[in-house]
Amino acid sequence: MKQFFKFVLATIVGVVLITVVLVLVVIGIISASGDKTIEVEPNSVLHMAFTNPITERTPNNPLAGLSFLGFDKDKATGLNDILANIKKAKTDANIKGIFLDESYMVSGQATTEEIRNALIDFKKSGKFIIAYSEVYTQGFYYLASVADKVYMNPKGIFELKGFNSEVTFLKGALDKLGVEIQIIKVGTFKSAVEPLFLTKMSDANRLQVTSYLGSLYDHFLTGISKSRGINKDSLFNYANNARVQLPEDAVKLKLIDGLKYKDEILDDLKERTGIEKKSDLNSVELADYTKSNADDDNKDEATSSKNRIAVVYASGEISGGEGDDNTIGSERISKALRKVRLDNKVKAVVLRVNSPGGSSLASDVIWREVMLTKKVKPIIVSMGDLAASGGYYISCAADSIIAQPNTITGSIGIFAILPNMQKLFNDKLGVTFDGVKTGKYADLGDISRPLTPEEKLLLQNNVNRGYDDFTKAVADGRHKTQAYINSIGQGRVWTGEQALKNGLVDRLGNINDAITSAAKKANIKNYKLVAYPEQKSFLNQLSGDVTAEARTRILQSELGDNYKVYEQIKGVTQMMHTPQARMPYSIEIK
Question: Can you give the pTM of this predicted structure?
Answer without folding.
Answer: 0.87
